[in-house]
């Protein structure tokens, strides 16, 4: 049994990564009938030193696209990403190689992430050699991720899903990263081993001071693992808050919907707070709030203008016109 | 033939994927029954044999043999049906939503054509008008806009494709629908919407559902009875209320329940079950769960425990009478 780490110790520290107005687009269709998809639409946030920041949102809301922009698998269309103060959004060549080593990605599927012909030992040793990392050895990394040494000469197909994901994490750690972007690292694993992978990541964070962007569509694991949680919908960042606060006082109607749909032992099953189900419009021609078609609180301006960002408190922000949802009684906003 | 009253009655089923030298028992002495109109959840980790059971019920096992036991659907022994009856039996009596089915919709057929083909395959004389009205009805049931009837799979979101697959499964009014992980790739909001829909249609059309998933928290919301499978054996069958109220459970079930995080509590904790499930060619002796069980004793390594009724649940655990005390000691 492991408990949620102390929350809120990181706020005064300097951010490692500062993302401003990040936009990722994909041109689709033929050149003469170009349509532009915007999975990441003017998103801003920051990641503090060894913070775990959760990113939740509906399928197709742009979570993986943010991950791939941060790790520079994709080049952003516009915006800035400051890593220790340097804008890395458009760097190239050796600068980019150096950056990529510092920001590692762990993917959802531990089955396809490993080379099927290389032993566990080889998979972990290669990145160590690559950067001449003398701080760790294969042994120490395998130990850090909780894999027994008898497993080191095995091939990926001889390992269980949970063991594979540990190898993937060990391999990422070998590069001495400052940030690990974990894109649904446990969703393909059995429920009974999920917690052990999360607590491993938590452990590494404390011992080696790695920060995490933890992507999931499972609010419960986001709360368990992260200091803060950001919520995305249709390419927009719609809410951000400290984890416990976001669960206790969700402001955005989509966050409320997500919370109502998340299974919980104590909650009685009730109707979902939405007008109906539809998928968000990600085309560049879309106007207003992407959640408007499903929103119980929709009003005229929601379909015309982009909702303004409001910091309800210094750590809790939301993008929504329905400010009756978050106005404090008696206060002026 | 005597009607047993159950739509589905699986008794003492054992399925082997191995050969003479190395048996690979994917199901071992599995018994399970489903009543008309009932919603039964079958929960287990990857490789526990859930899909194997579904295939065995439809007589679709590939490379596996039923070495013991029997399966009856509406009182008929499935393995005694001749090929004519078997065709009618599949889809008209029992239909199935296959694991990953939403990714295997035919890319060159529209939604409507999928439904037409399914119905025509069983009734060649059906008129176009009848087909059209049944299609409308089905799309309405799964809450897909009629304008989508002309769309191809790639024009639909994952949630919509999944609804189409469900519409196909209920197209011929079966008595039992088997759903193998129908919502796994979808996010919670979409999952919930689909589950709610299935529940409503099921009540209206009065078919029974065998719902297969690895996610216990999902069936808690909708099933009446839940069976938990581990390494090819059912280790517990319990009414769903007992899962929610936290009465006595098998140590494995308890582990699965603890793995569901409590979202609203101030102190969030998730626990896991150490170790991982065995391979079916190298099953541990006695109770297959014993290497991972906190309460295993010598007797658990000896002979496999049988299901016994205890406080309303069927539980297969050698230490059953003592469990209550063992749990309270923690
Ligand atoms: N390389 C690409 N080319 C074109 N479209 C893309 C590409 N990558 C992503 N998209 C589109 O961007 C949108 C957002 O996708 P993304 O994978 O970021 O979502 P997600 O939030 O990670 O979803 P999920 O929870 O299903 O993984 C989708 O509509 C997707 O089809
Ligand atoms: N055609 C086959 N030949 C040999 N072994 C098989 C075959 N199909 C399944 N198995 C084995 O039988 C066991 C049960 O598999 P099954 O697919 O029924 O599990 P499951 O519970 O559906 O798992 P999942 O949750 O991953 O779908 C596994 O050990 C699997 O490797
Ligand atoms: Mg993704
Ligand atoms: Mg299966």
Automatic annotation (TrEMBL), chain B:
Membrane is among the record's keywords:
yes
Source domain of life: Bacteria
Q: Which residues form the ABC transporter domain?
A: 8-256
Q: What is its main location?
A: membrane
Q: Which PROSITE patterns match?
A: ABC_TRANSPORTER_1 (PS00211), ABC_TRANSPORTER_2 (PS50893)
Q: SUPFAM superfamilies annotated for this entry?
A: P-loop containing nucleoside triphosphate hydrolases
Entries under InterPro entries matching the protein: AAA+_ATPase, ABC_Ni/Peptide_Import, ABC_transporter-like_ATP-bd, ABC_transporter-like_CS, Oligopep_ABC_C, P-loop_NTPase
- Keywords (A to Z) from UniProt: ATP-binding, Cell inner membrane, Cell membrane, Membrane, Nucleotide-binding, Translocase, Transport
Which is an annotated Pfam family here?
oligo_HPY
| Molecular functions per Gene Ontology | ATP binding; ATP hydrolysis activity
Topology term for the membrane:
Peripheral membrane protein
Q: Which GO terms describe its cellular component?
A: plasma membrane
Subcellular location(s) per record? Cell membrane
Q: Which GO terms describe its biological process?
A: peptide transport
Output the CDD domains linked to this UniProt entry.
ABC_NikE_OppD_transporters (cd03257)
The protein depicted here goes by the name Dipeptide/oligopeptide/nickel ABC transporter ATP-binding protein
Phylogenetic classification of the source organism? Bacteria, Bacillati, Bacillota, Clostridia, Eubacteriales
């Amino acid at each position: 049994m492991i408990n949620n780490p102390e929350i809120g110790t990181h706020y005064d520290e300097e951010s490692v990564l500062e993302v401003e107005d990040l936009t990722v687009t994909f041109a689709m269709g033929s050149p003469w009938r170009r349509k532009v998809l915007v999975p990441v639409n003017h998103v801003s946030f920051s990641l503090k030193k060894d913070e775990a920041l959760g990113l939740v949102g509906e399928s197709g809301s742009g979570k993986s696209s943010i991950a791939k922009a941060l790790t520079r698998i994709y080049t952003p269309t516009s915006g800035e990403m400051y890593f220790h103060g340097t804008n890395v959004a458009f760097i190239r060549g050796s600068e980019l190689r150096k950056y990529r080593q510092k920001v590692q990605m762990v993917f959802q599927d531990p089955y396809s992430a490993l080379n099927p012909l290389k032993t566990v030992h080889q998979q972990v040793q290669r990145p160590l050699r690559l950067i001449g990392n003398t701080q760790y050895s294969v042994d120490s990394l395998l130990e850090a991720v909780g894999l027994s040494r008898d497993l080191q000469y095995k091939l990926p197909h001889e390992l269980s899903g949970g063991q594979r994901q540990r190898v993937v994490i060990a391999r990422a750690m070998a590069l001495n990263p400052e940030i690990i972007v974990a894109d649904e690292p446990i969703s393909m694993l059995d429920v009974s081993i999920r917690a052990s992978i999360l607590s491993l990541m938590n452990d590494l964070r404390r011992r080696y001071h790695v920060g995490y962007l933890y992507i999931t569509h499972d609010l419960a694991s986001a709360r368990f693992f992260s200091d803060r949680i950001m919520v995305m919908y249709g390419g927009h960042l719609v809410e951000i808050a400290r984890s416990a606060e976001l669960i206790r006082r969700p402001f955005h109607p989509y966050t409320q919907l997500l919370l109502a749909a998340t299974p919980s032992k104590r909650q009685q099953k009730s109707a979902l707070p939405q007008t109906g189900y539809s998928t968000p419009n990600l085309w560049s021609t879309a106007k207003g709030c992407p959640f408007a078609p499903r929103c119980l609180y929709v009003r005229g301006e929601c379909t015309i203008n982009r909702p303004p960002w409001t910091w309800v408190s210094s750590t809790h922000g939301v993008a929504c016109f329905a400010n009756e949802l978050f106005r404090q009684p008696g206060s002026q906003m | 033939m005597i009607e047993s009253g159950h739509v589905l009655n699986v008794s003492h089923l054992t399925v082997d994927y191995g050969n003479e030298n190395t048996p690979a028992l994917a199901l071992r002495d599995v018994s399970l029954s489903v009543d008309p109109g009932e919603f039964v959840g079958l929960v287990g980790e990857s490789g526990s044999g859930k899909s194997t059971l579904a295939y065995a019920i439809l007589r679709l096992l590939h490379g596996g043999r039923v070495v013991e036991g029997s399966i009856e659907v509406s009182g008929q022994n499935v393995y005694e049906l001749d090929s004519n009856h078997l065709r009618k039996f599949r889809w008209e009596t029992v239909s199935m939503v296959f694991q990953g089915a939403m990714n295997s919709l035919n890319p060159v057929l529209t939604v409507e054509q999928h439904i037409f083909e399914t119905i025509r395959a069983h009734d060649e004389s059906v008129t176009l008008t009848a087909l059209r009205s049944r299609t409308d009805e089905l799309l309405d049931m799964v809450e897909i806009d009629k304008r989508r009837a002309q769309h191809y799979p790639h024009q639909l979101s994952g949630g919509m494709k999944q609804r189409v697959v469900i519409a196909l499964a209920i197209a011929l009014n079966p008595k039992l629908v088997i759903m193998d992980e129908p919502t796994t790739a979808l996010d919670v909001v979409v999952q919930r919407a689909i589950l709610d829909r299935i529940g409503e249609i099921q009540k209206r059309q009065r078919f029974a559902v065998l719902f297969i998933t690895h996610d216990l928290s999902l069936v808690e919301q909708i099933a009446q009875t839940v069976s938990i499978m581990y390494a090819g054996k059912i280790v517990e069958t319990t009414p769903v209320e007992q899962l929610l109220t936290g009465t006595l459970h098998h140590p494995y079930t308890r582990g699965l329940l603890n793995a569901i995080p409590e979202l609203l509590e101030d102190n969030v904790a998730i626990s896991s079950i150490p170790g991982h499930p065995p391979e079916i060619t190298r099953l541990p002796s006695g109770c297959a769960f014993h290497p991972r069980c906190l309460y295993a004793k010598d007797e658990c390594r000896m002979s496999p425990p049988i299901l016994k009724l205890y406080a309303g649940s069927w539980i297969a655990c050698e230490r059953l009478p003592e469990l209550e005390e063992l749990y309270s000691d923690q």
